[in-house]
Design brief:
This protein is of the alpha/beta class. It has a domain at 2-23 and 39-135 and 248-290. The protein has an eleven-stranded mixed beta sheet, with helices on both faces. It has a two-stranded antiparallel ribbon with strand order 8-9. A hairpin with a 3-residue loop joins strand 5 (366-372) and strand 6 (376-379).
């Protein structure tokens, strides 16, 4: 019954459920006769409104409302009536046997549904009415009075971590460190928490400037930067133990949270604001999913201490404005299939699309990345973004558009709806679905032929989405001629953006960290993906490096060695730099040959396994380091091109090196009985983790971090030493230049003779 209920909810694009009426505060003094009279009149008004709403002509009026809210209410009223009648009929048929046939939670569903229906009628005093009134209150949502426009634009912790005296660390020498987490649902959330907890215990997390996430790692960031995690990863582990032992769609807990104060208003505010604030809003499975996720993840143990500030990403500025915590970067993607760009003039005139045009559009499809920080939502392909507090409001021609009824802007899009977008892996293409389940079925009989067949159709499967993504208002709507040429034509005609899990494009959020201005020196990637590529590990980094203009190559598995001095490690880092695409390719081949030769010697017992080998199977180890240079790159064999002039590029090159540290979530013999590829509870589609499961995952994440602990520290030290040397060289040259200038002016060693009377 519950499955059927949710099918109907999804089929009718039903999002959020609603609870009891707002509780009135008891007066401090006995009410006067006049107040009693007014209270009676108010109650009568509410009763009249409820009676009127039940009349046939009122139902017809609701059905005639073509706004998103009116459409939703009409369909939900129909569903509520239908489900009540069906439930009554079913109860009569199984009378006397219901205790044996029906679970206890199923018996309370009709009451929950009816209560939600009453709360959704927008009658005075209903929860929906209360939420919409608060949405128009600038004291509660100050951003509704701010107008927004689209922006178009092309230290001590380190000393402690490296064991250096604080006075020896110059601010300019401190590396900019970014830490990213992969997608993978609750597995990525729990494993990422364990990995970052290990980094925090080692002192590394305190040195991090940015964190970035995909899917479950976005959930991690939202919890860490909230009243629930309190910016402490150990407390986040405790919160997860208390909240994710029950499935997100378990009806009793989910409906109870939506029918009880204070969680009802906390969870449903974004739903009401989205429907009432945008008459063309679309609601679907992703929105319901986000609501259920929020009911589990954003509600504390006991369900009473909810904090409304946790609902807006822009509020997270308070936790990072003084630099005490890393800046979180959330990600989503839009799948661009350029039908309009491929149309011929004849097709445009006839408004038809041929099969050949569709095929060309499919071949040219790509993903556009959107990042959301506490400050801005930005798309690199558009070269444009908006303030985060303006997320969810309507835009046209680069300017926001107030609500047609209230004249105010709607509040910032709430986190429950965004959680669904960040983790909407079920909106994946069929190709992505297959990549998720492939590790689980590759041992089946006949798998090889099936795998070949699916891989042969991969291009077609990678364009089809069985489930529609979520939509939000498009800030680039109507901005023809204002955005760079990289922006697709379709974006100017679309009133809404269809966004989904960024794992559809890349399960590691590397791209946002390569934006100009972020100047990342060390990028640490914790990969808890289901498809960790242990058989093709070089392409894990080099693939996105080619796509985003970063030349990535390994400088040798096992680097840096714990026995090497800081000076020797820094020399090796410099040796690894490549000055051309050809040299980069050469270094890739050398590293691959070195790894292959080493594994052959291990297999023949001629050589001991390195600490990073996984039983000499050829798999990628626990920690691998690549070093590269940011440059524009086109095709594989073409030399890199730069946007700057040649002289400037040569000056910039030494500062452009990025060290990529890759730490996949692998099985470890030090933690027996826990294997991400075998343990059932680590499936991307599992939504129940017991406290014991969480302890196991965290223990494995810690053990894996320990394998690369010294390697990580050596990498950070090497980058620090390089930046220090470059600064000292730069200062030395500047000092020498100042001295030469004084020599030319004849002022060396002459005090009081450097004024304008002695320049001739």
């Amino acid at each position: 019954m519950f499955l059927g209920l949710f099918y109907i909810l999804y089929q009718n694009d039903y999002l959020d459920l609603q609870p009891l009426p707002a509780t009135k505060v008891r007066p401090k003094r006995p009410p006067t006769g006049r107040e009693k009279s007014e209270a009676r009149a108010e109650k009568q008004t509410i009763r009249n409104a409820k009676e009127l709403s039940a009349l046939p002509f009122q139902q017809d009026a609701a059905a005639g409302d073509d706004s998103a809210w009116g459409s939703f209410i009409g369909r939900f009223n129909d569903f509520s009536t239908m489900s009540g009648e069906q439930w009554k009929s079913l109860s009569e048929k199984v009378s006397g046997y219901s205790d044996y046939i029906m679970p206890d939670w199923a018996k309370v569903l009709p009451g929950y549904i009816e209560k939600l229906r009453r709360e959704l009628n927008m009658a005075p005093g209903s929860l929906a009415d209360d939420i919409w009134k608060e949405a128009q209150n600038p004291e509660i949502n100050p951003e509704i009075e701010y107008s927004a426009s689209v922006r178009v634009s092309d230290d001590i912790s380190l000393a402690k971590y490296l064991g250096l005296p604080e006075e020896c660390v110059h601010p300019d020498d401190v590396p900019c460190i970014a830490m990213v987490g992969s997608g993978g649902g609750l597995r990525a959330l729990v494993a990422g928490t364990g990995s970052m907890l290990a980094a925090a215990e080692d002192g590394l997390f305190d040195c991090v400037t940015y964190t970035a996430g995909v899917s479950g790692s976005c959930w991690l960031q939202s919890l860490f930067n909230s009243s629930l995690g309190e910016r402490r990863l150990d407390r986040l582990v405790d919160h997860l133990k208390a909240r994710i032992g029950i499935h997100i769609a378990y009806p009793v807990d989910a409906l109870a949270a939506l029918n009880s104060a204070p969680t009802n208003k906390f969870l449903l505010s974004g739903f009401v604001e989205k429907l009432k604030g945008d008459r063309n809003a679309e609601l679907g499975l992703v929105d319901v999913y986000g609501l259920l996720l929020a009911a589990r993840l954003l509600v504390p143990k006991g369900e009473l201490g909810v904090d409304n500030r946790d609902l807006k990403i822009s509020n997270q500025r308070d936790y990072i404005k003084h630099g005490e915590n890393p800046m979180p970067i959330y990600t989503a993607v839009r799948h661009e299939i350029p039908i309009m760009e491929e149309l011929s003039e004849e097709e445009k005139q006839k408004e038809t699309v041929s099969e050949a045009t569709k095929e060309r559009a499919v071949r040219e499809a790509w993903f556009e990345w959107f990042e959301i920080t506490p400050y801005e939502m930005f798309c690199e392909e558009f070269g444009a973004g908006i303030p985060t507090w303006a997320l969810g409001r309507k835009f046209e021609g680069g300017k926001d558009v107030p609500h047609e009824e209230t004249g105010l802007r709607i509040p910032e899009l709430r986190l429950p709806l965004l959680l669904g977008i960040f983790g909407s892996a079920f909106c994946a293409t069929l190709s992505h679905y297959y990549r998720e389940v492939r590790p689980l079925v590759k041992g089946m009989m006949g798998f090889g032929s099936i795998d070949d067949m699916i891989e042969g159709r991969n291009q077609d499967l990678s364009k089809f989405h069985p489930i529609d993504p979520a939509s939000i208002p498009n800030f680039a709507y109507g901005m023809e001629g204002k955005l760079p040429e990289s922006a697709p034509e379709s974006i100017y005609q679309s009133t809404h953006l269809k966004l989904m899990d960024a794992g559809m494009s890349n399960n590691l959020p590397i791209y946002p960290l390569l934006r100009p201005g972020r100047e990342v020196d060390v990028l640490i990637a914790f990969d808890a993906s289901a498809d960790v590529k242990t058989d093709d590990w070089l392409s894990v980094v080099d693939g996105y490096a080619r796509q985003r203009g970063v030349k990535g190559w390994p400088i040798g598995v096992g680097w840096p060695k714990s026995s090497d001095t800081a000076e020797r490690t820094e020399e090796q880092l410099e040796e690894a730099q490549a000055s051309s695409a050809a040299e980069a390719e050469s270094k890739l081949e050398e590293a691959q040959e070195d790894q292959t030769a080493h594994l052959e010697k291990v297999a023949s017992s001629q050589e001991e396994p390195r600490s990073l080998d996984v039983e000499a199977t050829g798999d990628l180890g626990y920690c691998t380091v690549w070093v590269g240079t940011i440059e524009e790159r086109t095709e594989k064999d073409e030399p890199p091109l730069s946007k700057a002039v040649k002289e400037d590029w040569q000056l910039m090159e030494p500062n452009a090196g990025i060290a990529v540290v890759y730490l996949p979530f692998l099985a470890n013999p030090k933690v027996e009985g826990v294997d991400p590829t075998v343990s059932d509870y680590m499936s991307t589609w599992n939504f129940v983790y017991t406290p014991e499961d969480i302890d196991n995952v965290v223990k494995l994440a810690r053990a894996n971090f320990d394998e690369g602990r010294e390697q990580l520290r050596g990498t950070v030290r090497a980058v620090y030493e390089r930046k220090k040397r470059l600064r000292e060289d730069r200062e030395s040259k500047e000092k020498e230049e100042r001295f030469r200038r004084k020599v030319r002016l004849g002022t060396v060693g002459k005090k009081g003779e450097g004024d304008h009377f002695h320049l001739t």
